[in-house]
Design goal:
Blueprint (H helix, E strand, L loop, with lengths): L32 E3 L8 H11 L10 H17 L3 E8 L2 E2 L4 E3 L2 E3 L2 H9 L1 E12 L3 H8 L3 H32 L3 E2 L15 H7 L2 H4 L2 E2 L5 E2 L3 E11 L20 H6 L5
The structure holds iron/sulfur cluster.
Iron/sulfur cluster binds next to loops.
């Protein structure tokens, strides 16, 4: 059943709702939004701290001047090489079953995410998101002769991609707020109970050429430093992600209630 057919609030056209809200079930492929934030709009200090954490400095701080200089040089190169690009598209939930969600781009085969979607109230839609650092940082990494710099570029690339994905998530949250909707935290293929081949549904939803990311036959993304994800948008979203509903108490990726409320991923 297409939930849009049940909409009693407006015409179903984006921006044309009688209540001045964007209909979550009305976005189509031609409405995919491509955004290009510049590095200055991203939190560079946060990228530095997260890179240090990734390199094993648990509090995001290093005292070794050689390490700090290497990260500083890596950030300088990254600021020039990174070409942040982000894209999103919203499609209605066609059906929310026990183990999966149906959308016109394909299924989302995750029982845990499906449970969260079923608990949402009112019109429900899936926000498909893709964020990338672009190809140039990878080239800088490949052409560097220093093994240390390669490690730094690799860590920086991962953190830049996560930071762009965070930025995109905030953009989607703003879209949801303007539309009178709530949105969950992002959820990616390859995590939790959603297998990596879930990438195909995300890439069916988005115009990958415009998004600047390709998907290989084995579901690897190119550029590698890219983040694909989904979120549910609805009039009421009871939890930011499915962890609170999940019985797997010893999961190392579990987010606590405090983290969920604060919206801060575990360091
Ligand atoms: S606790 Fe772990 S398995 Fe359960 S929903 Fe959270 S991430 Fe997924």
């Amino acid at each position: 059943m297409m939930e849009q057919e049940d909409c009693r609030r407006g015409s179903g056209q984006p921006g044309a709702c009688q209540e001045g809200r964007q209909c979550p079930g009305s976005a189509r492929s031609d409405l995919m939004l491509v955004l290009e934030p510049d590095m200055n709009s991203l939190n560079v200090e946060r990228i530095r701290e997260r890179t240090l954490r990734r390199l094993g400095y648990r509090r995001g701080k290093a005292t070794d001047s050689a390490i700090l200089n290497g990260i500083g040089e890596g950030l300088r190169v990254a600021a020039e090489a990174v070409q942040p690009r982000a894209a999103y598209r919203v499609l209605p939930v066609l059906e929310a079953g026990g183990d999966s969600i149906e959308t016109e781009a394909g299924p989302i085969n995750s029982a845990r995410f499906a449970r969260l979607v079923r608990m949402c109230a009112g019109q429900k839609a899936i926000v498909f998101m893709l964020a990338t650092v672009g190809p140039a940082l990878e080239k800088a990494c490949d052409s560097s002769e220093s093994l240390f710099q390669k490690v730094v570029y690799d860590a920086l690339g991962s953190e830049c991609a996560e930071t762009i994905a965070d930025w995109l998530e905030e953009e989607c949250e703003s879209w949801a707020e303007r539309s009178g909707l709530k949105i969950s935290a992002r959820f990616s293929p390859g995590y939790c109970d959603w297998a990596l081949d879930g990438q195909r549904t995300i890439f069916h939803a988005l115009d990958t050429e415009k998004a600047g990311v390709r998907l290989s036959a084995h579901c690897a993304m190119e550029p590698v430093k890219s983040v694909s994800s989904i979120a549910v948008a609805a009039e009421s979203v009871p939890y930011r992600n499915p962890c609170i509903l999940c019985p797997k108490k010893d999961c190392r990726w579990r987010r606590t209630r405090q983290e969920l409320e604060a919206g801060i991923p575990e360091a």
